[in-house]
Amino acid sequence: MNPPLGSPEPRTYSEPMRPPQPAVGQSPQPVRQIAISVEGLNLWYGKNQALFDVSLGFPARSVTAIIGPSGCGKSTLLRTLNRMHEVTPGTRMTGRVRLFGDDLYRSGMDPTILRRRVGMIFQKSNPFPTLSVRENVLVGLRLNGVRDKEVLRERLEECLRMAALWDEVKDNLNRPGISLSGGQQQRLCIARAIAMRPEVLLMDEPSSALDPIATARIEELVHELKETFTIVIVTHNMQQAARVSDHTAFMYLGRLIEMGTTQKIFQRPEHRQTEEYITGRFG
Amino acid sequence: MTTVEASGRRLEDQHQHRWRRFKSGAMSALAVLSAAAVILPLGFVLFHLLLQGASSVNVDFFTRTPAAPGSPGGGMANAIAGSAELLALATALGAPIGVLGAIYLSEYSSPAVAASIRFVADVLNGVPSIIWGVLVFGVVVVPMHGFSTLAGAVALAIMMIPLVLRTTEEVLLLVPGGYREAALALGIARWKIVVHIVVRTASRGIVTGVLLAVARISGETAPLLFTAFGNLNWNLGLTQPIAALPLQIYTYAVSPYEDWHRQAWAGALVLISLIFLLNLSVRFLTRAKRL
After folding, report:
1. pLDDT in tens, B38-69
2. Partner A contacted by B186 (CB < 8 A)
3. Is the Cβ of B190 closer than 8 Å to some Cβ of chain A?
4. Where in chain A are the domains?
């Protein structure tokens, strides 16, 4: 299955925290480099198969939306991208997932290290209740041994600014993280995730518990963050997918039905099921 | 025709209504009486202790050691200090084991293993406390050739472990899984998540559980009978017999001296007040914030 090593395309993508990896086994993508490629993924929860032979690539520094009706496997697919599905007992998986060519499931790949490269935002905002705003943002760094006060202070402001939260909290960074409003809490979680300088941000319905104004702020934020990160967002809300994403993948009953640019998926879908879902005839 | 039927039904309804009201009232009365039966003994004990013991609770009681048998005066200073030392040692020995065991159950073990350990802990909680006294007599007192503070503390610690284990496990399970997932997704090592996120979130509940366990064992007499043994003089050393409030109360209560009887009442009053205070501080802790 593995294509031969070598023939790497010139990388347009480099970040200080990210050693350039020789790309292995990517399907050639004309425009953008693929950040994460998924090949022939099958996944079972106990005896129930949740994903069937899913293969797709998530382009770097852009937003890819995964849409589909409830139970179609979109959250499951998302969780295989940072091995969070392994937290659920009884899961079994076959297939390959590569992050810039690096096989996430090879032996010797530590899921803890991997998750520093692939951050995650959850549906329900979950700032740590015993920690202040400052501690919430820095907890990942602190617990991974970063002690330098100067570094921590810089990273705190940088991340809160990137998460568009700095102006709202800068006067009282010591208040509890859970004293913020729902939308602010979710942006705090985003700040906490990007403090680890991940390469990819996975978002699992990040605004489904928020009001329309807070949702709009999160969407703006997603738009800004894609300059720096590769973003994969699972959403129930098709308008949201249309607004924030560059590419859209439509899933149904554990299978990837169709993937393409968001414009194409929403205007000229190739599959009837995609069209029916998008136009609201089922789902 | 229809009107007659309707009025007939109404009469029947009214009859049923009265019967239902009677049943409801009877059940309520029964419940109120049962609730009163719960409170009554406590009120009675407190009242009786105050009546019998309050007059003997004075400065001497807290500052002096027991007087010679039959002679008036003296106090239980050694027993109060002894109880404090025994409880502190027992907590130092038992609480960490209970808490760490609970962390294993809630964070690491498989459900089957957790269920069996939980069952064993529940059995241990039901073991009569005198059995622990006998066990520690055989395991600690005999090899050390004598009763000692250490033996008493070990007996109390053994009682504390399953209590702390169960309460701690429960509060750890109350920590929402979302926090563990959020920390995992940040690439934080598992043991750091447990220590810095899960235990920290549940810390108040863990402290509450330990305090409740201390309150529970602070009145235990049976496990101390052949371990700490009791002492009418000062001793805070680890290898000598030590006095404890419940033991002293027991010794005084079965003695033939009128003055010792009064002091036994006073001791009981002090002991129950301490337990009351411990429970109050638990209430205070749990009310300040959830978890």
Report:
1. 999 989 999 999 999 898 888 999 999 998 87
2. yes
3. yes
4. 34-126+200-278
